[in-house]
Protein backbone atom coordinates (compact mmCIF):
# COMPACT_ATOMS: atom_id res chain seq x y z
CA UNK A 1 0.00 0.00 0.00
CA UNK A 2 1.17 3.54 -0.75
CA UNK A 3 1.17 5.56 2.47
CA UNK A 4 1.40 9.35 2.26
CA UNK A 5 2.56 10.88 5.54
CA UNK A 6 1.61 14.50 6.20
CA UNK A 7 3.43 16.29 9.03
CA UNK A 8 1.93 18.73 11.49
CA UNK A 9 2.97 22.33 12.06
CA UNK A 10 6.66 23.30 11.98
CA UNK A 11 7.77 19.93 10.60
CA UNK A 12 8.92 18.51 7.28
CA UNK A 13 9.18 15.03 5.80
CA UNK A 14 12.13 14.13 8.03
CA UNK A 15 9.85 14.17 11.07
CA UNK A 16 8.67 10.70 10.02
CA UNK A 17 12.18 9.21 9.75
CA UNK A 18 11.91 7.08 12.89
CA UNK A 19 8.46 5.78 11.95
CA UNK A 20 8.74 4.78 8.27
CA UNK A 21 11.17 1.81 8.66
CA UNK A 22 8.46 -0.31 10.29
CA UNK A 23 6.01 0.53 7.53
CA UNK A 24 8.55 -0.41 4.87
CA UNK A 25 9.37 -3.64 6.70
CA UNK A 26 5.65 -4.47 6.66
CA UNK A 27 5.68 -4.13 2.86
CA UNK A 28 4.27 -0.63 2.45
CA UNK A 29 5.61 2.16 0.23
CA UNK A 30 6.03 5.36 2.21
CA UNK A 31 5.81 8.92 0.91
CA UNK A 32 6.62 11.42 3.69
CA UNK A 33 5.94 14.95 2.51
CA UNK A 34 7.34 18.41 3.02
CA UNK A 35 4.46 20.82 2.50
CA UNK A 36 4.73 24.16 0.64
CA UNK A 37 6.41 26.83 2.72
CA UNK A 38 8.13 24.28 4.94
CA UNK A 39 11.08 23.60 2.61
CA UNK A 40 13.46 25.68 4.74
CA UNK A 41 13.52 28.52 7.21
CA UNK A 42 14.31 30.84 4.32
CA UNK A 43 11.39 29.72 2.14
CA UNK A 44 8.66 32.21 1.36
CA UNK A 45 5.42 31.60 3.24
CA UNK A 46 3.50 34.51 1.74
CA UNK A 47 0.20 33.55 0.13
CA UNK A 48 0.30 29.91 1.23
CA UNK A 49 -2.97 28.80 2.77
CA UNK A 50 -4.68 25.61 3.84
CA UNK A 51 -6.09 25.01 0.35
CA UNK A 52 -2.54 25.08 -1.04
CA UNK A 53 -1.50 22.28 1.30
CA UNK A 54 -4.59 20.29 0.38
CA UNK A 55 -3.85 20.89 -3.32
CA UNK A 56 -0.27 19.72 -2.86
CA UNK A 57 -1.19 16.45 -1.14
CA UNK A 58 -3.98 15.86 -3.67
CA UNK A 59 -1.38 16.13 -6.44
CA UNK A 60 0.77 13.52 -4.69
CA UNK A 61 -2.22 11.17 -4.52
CA UNK A 62 -2.95 11.76 -8.21
CA UNK A 63 0.62 10.78 -9.03
CA UNK A 64 0.27 7.34 -7.43
CA UNK A 65 -1.46 4.27 -8.80
CA UNK A 66 -4.26 2.60 -6.90
CA UNK A 67 -5.68 3.37 -3.49
CA UNK A 68 -3.68 5.44 -1.03
CA UNK A 69 -3.58 5.66 2.76
CA UNK A 70 -3.15 9.15 4.19
CA UNK A 71 -1.57 9.69 7.60
CA UNK A 72 -1.89 13.18 9.06
CA UNK A 73 -0.32 14.36 12.31
CA UNK A 74 -1.84 17.30 14.19
CA UNK A 75 -2.63 20.04 11.64
CA UNK A 76 -1.96 17.48 8.93
CA UNK A 77 -5.26 15.92 9.93
CA UNK A 78 -7.14 18.84 8.41
CA UNK A 79 -5.09 18.47 5.24
CA UNK A 80 -5.84 14.78 4.76
CA UNK A 81 -9.52 15.39 5.47
CA UNK A 82 -9.52 18.01 2.72
CA UNK A 83 -7.92 15.50 0.36
CA UNK A 84 -10.55 12.89 1.23
CA UNK A 85 -13.16 15.47 0.31
CA UNK A 86 -11.52 15.96 -3.09
CA UNK A 87 -10.56 12.34 -3.84
CA UNK A 88 -12.91 10.13 -1.79
CA UNK A 89 -12.62 7.34 -4.35
CA UNK A 90 -8.80 7.20 -4.04
CA UNK A 91 -8.31 7.08 -0.29
CA UNK A 92 -8.32 3.63 1.30
CA UNK A 93 -8.06 5.02 4.82
CA UNK A 94 -7.29 8.24 6.65
CA UNK A 95 -5.22 7.92 9.81
CA UNK A 96 -5.37 10.91 12.16
CA UNK A 97 -2.38 11.00 14.53
CA UNK A 98 -3.47 12.99 17.59
CA UNK A 99 -5.73 14.95 15.27
CA UNK A 100 -9.09 14.75 13.57
CA UNK A 101 -11.21 16.13 10.75
CA UNK A 102 -12.37 19.74 11.16
CA UNK A 103 -15.91 20.82 10.35
CA UNK A 104 -16.75 23.10 7.42
CA UNK A 105 -15.26 26.58 7.86
CA UNK A 106 -13.15 25.65 10.89
CA UNK A 107 -9.54 26.82 11.15
CA UNK A 108 -6.83 24.52 12.44
CA UNK A 109 -5.65 27.02 15.05
CA UNK A 110 -6.13 30.76 14.71
CA UNK A 111 -4.78 31.49 18.19
CA UNK A 112 -1.10 30.81 17.58
CA UNK A 113 1.12 33.94 17.71
CA UNK A 114 2.16 34.97 14.20
CA UNK A 115 4.99 37.07 12.86
CA UNK A 116 3.88 38.45 9.51
CA UNK A 117 3.19 35.60 7.09
CA UNK A 118 4.50 32.92 9.41
CA UNK A 119 4.05 31.29 12.79
CA UNK A 120 7.35 30.42 14.46
CA UNK A 121 7.49 27.53 16.91
CA UNK A 122 6.23 29.10 20.16
CA UNK A 123 8.01 28.80 23.52
CA UNK A 124 7.35 25.44 25.17
CA UNK A 125 5.51 27.22 27.97
CA UNK A 126 2.56 27.84 25.63
CA UNK A 127 1.84 24.10 25.55
CA UNK A 128 0.17 22.12 28.31
CA UNK A 129 1.71 19.30 30.29
CA UNK A 130 -0.25 16.63 28.41
CA UNK A 131 0.95 18.05 25.07
CA UNK A 132 4.59 17.77 26.09
CA UNK A 133 4.38 14.36 27.78
CA UNK A 134 7.46 12.20 27.11
CA UNK A 135 9.11 15.01 25.15
CA UNK A 136 12.24 15.34 27.27
CA UNK A 137 14.87 18.04 27.07
CA UNK A 138 16.86 16.35 24.33
CA UNK A 139 13.77 15.74 22.19
CA UNK A 140 12.65 19.34 22.68
CA UNK A 141 16.06 20.59 21.62
CA UNK A 142 15.98 18.40 18.53
CA UNK A 143 12.47 19.59 17.69
CA UNK A 144 13.47 23.26 18.07
CA UNK A 145 16.54 22.72 15.89
CA UNK A 146 14.47 21.21 13.07
CA UNK A 147 11.42 23.51 13.43
CA UNK A 148 10.44 25.59 10.40
CA UNK A 149 7.97 28.48 10.68
CA UNK A 150 4.47 27.53 9.62
CA UNK A 151 2.66 29.54 6.92
CA UNK A 152 0.21 31.64 8.92
CA UNK A 153 -2.78 31.23 6.61
CA UNK A 154 -2.59 27.43 6.85
CA UNK A 155 -3.46 27.80 10.52
CA UNK A 156 -6.10 30.53 10.14
CA UNK A 157 -7.98 29.61 6.95
CA UNK A 158 -11.31 27.86 7.34
CA UNK A 159 -11.48 24.50 5.58
CA UNK A 160 -13.86 24.20 2.61
CA UNK A 161 -15.65 20.87 2.14
CA UNK A 162 -18.13 19.89 -0.56
CA UNK A 163 -18.32 16.12 -1.19
CA UNK A 164 -20.17 14.06 1.39
CA UNK A 165 -18.53 10.93 0.02
CA UNK A 166 -15.68 11.87 2.36
CA UNK A 167 -17.69 10.11 5.08
CA UNK A 168 -17.26 6.85 3.17
CA UNK A 169 -13.47 7.02 3.62
CA UNK A 170 -12.58 4.69 6.54
CA UNK A 171 -10.65 6.39 9.31
CA UNK A 172 -8.47 5.55 12.30
CA UNK A 173 -7.85 8.05 15.08
CA UNK A 174 -4.68 7.52 17.13
CA UNK A 175 -5.28 9.31 20.45
CA UNK A 176 -2.19 10.44 22.32
CA UNK A 177 -2.76 13.51 24.48
CA UNK A 178 -6.07 12.28 25.86
CA UNK A 179 -7.87 8.94 25.79
CA UNK A 180 -10.04 8.09 22.81
CA UNK A 181 -12.95 7.74 25.22
CA UNK A 182 -13.05 11.55 25.32
CA UNK A 183 -13.82 11.51 21.59
CA UNK A 184 -16.34 8.70 21.93
CA UNK A 185 -18.14 10.59 24.68
CA UNK A 186 -18.16 13.81 22.64
CA UNK A 187 -19.61 11.98 19.65
CA UNK A 188 -22.27 10.38 21.85
CA UNK A 189 -23.15 13.81 23.26
CA UNK A 190 -23.42 15.31 19.77
CA UNK A 191 -20.79 17.98 20.43
CA UNK A 192 -20.20 20.15 17.33
CA UNK A 193 -16.39 19.93 17.38
CA UNK A 194 -16.55 16.23 16.54
CA UNK A 195 -19.31 16.65 13.97
CA UNK A 196 -17.23 15.43 11.04
CA UNK A 197 -15.78 12.54 13.02
CA UNK A 198 -19.27 11.42 14.03
CA UNK A 199 -20.37 11.12 10.40
CA UNK A 200 -17.53 8.86 9.25
CA UNK A 201 -19.14 5.51 8.62
CA UNK A 202 -16.13 3.28 9.33
CA UNK A 203 -14.26 4.71 12.32
CA UNK A 204 -11.67 3.09 14.59
CA UNK A 205 -9.88 4.42 17.66
CA UNK A 206 -6.46 3.45 18.98
CA UNK A 207 -4.89 4.77 22.19
CA UNK A 208 -1.17 5.56 22.25
CA UNK A 209 -0.65 7.40 25.55
CA UNK A 210 2.08 10.01 25.13
CA UNK A 211 2.33 13.67 24.21
CA UNK A 212 1.30 15.40 21.00
CA UNK A 213 4.40 14.35 19.02
CA UNK A 214 4.52 10.52 19.16
CA UNK A 215 6.77 10.40 16.09
CA UNK A 216 9.46 11.75 18.46
CA UNK A 217 8.40 10.52 21.90
CA UNK A 218 7.29 7.00 20.91
CA UNK A 219 8.23 6.41 17.25
CA UNK A 220 8.55 2.63 17.53
CA UNK A 221 5.13 2.35 19.15
CA UNK A 222 3.60 4.70 16.57
CA UNK A 223 5.05 2.64 13.74
CA UNK A 224 3.61 -0.53 15.25
CA UNK A 225 0.19 1.08 15.66
CA UNK A 226 0.21 2.22 12.03
CA UNK A 227 1.20 -1.22 10.79
CA UNK A 228 -1.61 -2.80 12.80
CA UNK A 229 -4.15 -0.19 11.63
CA UNK A 230 -3.30 -1.07 8.02
CA UNK A 231 -3.11 -4.82 8.44
CA UNK A 232 -4.94 -6.70 5.67
CA UNK A 233 -5.59 -3.45 3.77
TrEMBL record:
GO molecular function, one term: hydrolase activity
Sorted UniProt keywords: Hydrolase
Domain AB hydrolase-1 intervals: 3-222
Name by which UniProt lists this protein: Alpha/beta hydrolase
Species in which this protein is naturally found: Aeromicrobium duanguangcaii
